[in-house]
Design a protein that fits this description.
Blueprint (H helix, E strand, L loop, with lengths): L5 E11 L3 E9 L10 E7 L3 E8 L4 E8 L11 E4 L1 E4 L6 H13 L5 E9 L8 E8 L7 E3 L8 E7 H9 L6 H22 L12
Parallel strand pairs: 4-9
Antiparallel strand pairs: 1-2, 2-3, 4-5, 4-7, 5-6, 5-11, 8-9, 10-11
């Protein structure tokens, strides 16, 4: 049994719309022994999600997207955010299914090969969102334009940049969203190994993936 324990004393839904907000009363064990007093916390609920960094190892380019994000409207000049392809896992779908689907819907890209990078919580202080991050191999030639689904009110600008330019965008603050920051930092660490893997023969690709 884990040394860490918690107890849910009460839970209720306080709002349900595009997302759901739940209010919890919980208590948990303390590092110095005993239990905390009952705490009231709000939990922003959404299903598990997928993000995929679209990378062309032959041209050494990444495919990025830009779209309006309500979470950034308190800084009006930052309401359009540069990101990577992402989406929610629907009933009956695997994380891999979502990566292939969202790459086509949001960026018009067909993923040719894919590896799983990490699974992580975006903001565990108040949100249940768990992301599975992939890196997908694509052919970036001809990539661009505006994509997205009309019935989901998506208006997504798609563009490809050289990988070094994407790294520069991290440095100069052009990319502020956490998921693409993490994805591009991972690519910075593993780009050479990734390009070597995708340049190899199918048999050679069975070797362990970048950690």
């Amino acid at each position: 049994m884990s040394k860490h324990q918690f107890e849910v004393l009460d839970v209720k839904t306080v709002y349900e719309g595009f997302f759901r907000l739940e209010q919890y009363r919980v208590r948990h064990t303390l590092y110095q022994g005993g239990w905390s007093r009952p705490l009231q916390r709000e939990l922003f609920r959404r299903g598990n999600c997928v993000a995929v960094l679209l990378y062309d190892p032959d041209r050494d380019e990444v495919v990025l997207i830009e779209q309006f994000r309500v979470g950034a409207i308190l800084r009006p000049n930052h309401a359009w955010q540069v990101e990577i392809v992402a989406g929610a896992i629907e009933d009956g779908e695997t994380a891999e299914d979502v990566a292939y689907r969202e790459a086509l819907e949001e960026a018009g890209c067909e993923i040719l090969d894919m590896i799983e990078v990490k699974r992580f919580y975006t903001t565990p202080g108040g949100s249940s969102e768990l992301i599975t991050l992939f890196c997908g191999r694509v052919d970036s030639r001809g990539i661009g334009g505006v994509h997205g689904l009309d019935h989901e009110d998506e208006d997504i600008r798609v563009f490809a940049v050289k990988t070094e330019q994407a790294f520069d965008m991290l440095e100069d603050g052009s990319i502020e969203s956490g998921i693409p920051i993490l994805a591009l930092q991972w690519l910075y660490m593993h780009r050479d190994r990734l390009r070597a893997r995708w340049a190899a023969s199918p048999a050679e690709r069975e070797q362990p993936e970048p950690a």
